Amino acid sequence: MSGRCKIRKAGETVVAKYFVKRILQMVPLLIVLSVIVFFLIRLIPGDPVTAMLGPGVVPANIEYERERLGLNDPIWVQYGRFVSGVLKGDLGKSIVTKKPVFYEIGKRLPVTLILAVGGTVISSLLGVLLGVIAAVKHNKFWDNAIMFLSLLTVSTPSFFLALLLVLIFSLQLGWLPSIGLSTPRHAIMPLLTLGSTGVGFMARTTRSAMLDVIRRDYIRTSRSRGIPERVVIYVHALKNALIPVITAIGLRFGGLLAGSALVETVFSIPGMGRFLVDSVSKRDYPCVQAGILVLAAVFIVVNTLVDLLYAAVDPRIRYT
After folding, report:
1. Who's near 67: CB < 8 A, 6+ residues apart?
2. Within a 10 A sphere around the Cβ of 81, how many other Cβ atoms?
3. How many percent of the chain have pLDDT more than 70?
4. pLDDT for 320 beyond 70
5. What is the Cα–Cα distance from 119 to 64, expressed in whole angstroms?
6. Residue 5 confidence (pLDDT) above 60
7. Of 141, 142, 125, nearest in space to 133 by CA
8. What is the CA radius of gyration of the chain?
9. DSSP code of 234?
10. Helix (H, G, I), strand (E, B) or coil at 182
11. 264, exposed or middle or buried, with CB in 10 Å at 0-12, 13-18, 19+?
């Protein structure tokens, strides 16, 4: 018993060290990303002060605002000031709203996380189920039907599906509200839109992984021993096919973090995707810089958790 405890503690120590190592690897990655974003956004044509004040403003006022905001300083001085603020927990102030960027992101990040998590859960559950059915019914009617459905969902633009759902369930039937995300009823159509567009990707990934596993010798052995088919498929085969599926789930979540701007626009949801698009159009440098860094940090943490799940799914995997 003591030997098992020692092995378990050793495994937990290895996982903890691996997690800390991955978190520390975030630092240089975020530094490189901050440099790229900081300099690229300043290559976009247009002036943030002009976009803020509007046309017809006296040039002296524009110059005053640029001096006040530090936009006339050398570019490396501006970057140093930005990094110094981030290290102190200060993401700066929005050029447009004059409010702290931390406050602006704090209002929108939870909304985006709700959309990303909900959309990922829906696409994962439906996609994995359909992928397993397609693999079991390989080259039969249900396999062809599911693959056709997968191709349809992958090819359907999210904004088109969102508009279609609004037209049917909001305008025609009047069942669901179409604006905002204040109640669970408001979340149904946005989550269905984001979840449906990822079902095809998850189904194809699961089907491919399952087809590779169910042809293995140990699956044939399990069937020859009289183990029920349902147990063979959902316990033995699916468990060993989860590695690529988990990877696909992590990628899907990362794609929804900042890739839901169109859906947020259709449903008038104040999320991070819409926030970044508006910030870029208004040349709100602090909001764009901080928003991308925050989303990147969340995505890296999620990828690290996905890597840790590999060991839970497959005990043969060890982190060294």
Report:
1. none
2. 13
3. 89
4. no
5. 46
6. no
7. 142
8. 24
9. I
10. coil
11. buried
DSSP output for 69-99: HTTTS-HHHHHHHHHHHHHTT---B-TTT-S
- What secondary structure does DSSP assign to 28-85, as a single string? HHHHHHHHHHHHHHTTSSS-HHHHHH-TT--HHHHHHHHHHHTTTS-HHHHHHHHHHH
Instruction: Tell me how far apart the alpha carbons of residues 303 and 305 are, in angstroms, rounded to a whole number.
Output: 5
**Residues sharing a CB contact under 8 Å with residue 276, sequence separation 6 or more, in sequence order:** 258, 261, 287, 288, 291, 292
Spatial distance between the Cα atoms of 130 and 124, rounded to a whole number of angstroms:
10
Name 100's bridge partners.
Answer: 93
Residues with Cβ within 8 Å of residue 250, at least 6 apart in sequence: 302, 303, 306
In sequence order, what are the residues at sequence separation of 6 or more whose Cβ sits closer than 8 angstroms to the Cβ of residue 96?
51, 52, 279, 282, 284, 287
Return d(Cα 112, Cα 123) in angstroms, integer. 16
- Domains located in the chain, CATH noted: 2-87 (no CATH), 108-281 (1.10.3720.10)
The number of CA neighbours under 13 Å toward the Cβ of 135 is: 25
pLDDT digits (tens, 9 = 90+) for 91-129: 788 888 888 888 888 888 888 888 888 888 998 899 889
Average pLDDT of the residues in 280-288: 84
Quick one: pLDDT at residue 12? 59
Predicted local confidence at residue 7, as pLDDT: 47
pTM: 0.78
**DSSP states along 129-166:** HHHHHHHHTTTSHHHHHHHHHHHHHHHS-HHHHHHHHI
Distance (Å, rounded) from C-alpha 313 to C-alpha 195?
A: 24
Say if CB 240 and CB 213 are below 8 A apart. Answer: yes
Backbone φ, ψ for residue 182 (5° rounding): -85, -25
The dihedral through the CA atoms of 304, 309, 314, 317 has a sign that is: positive
Are 253 and 116 a contacting pair, CB within 8 Å? yes
Average pLDDT, the chain: 80
**Mean pLDDT across the stretch 268-295?**
84
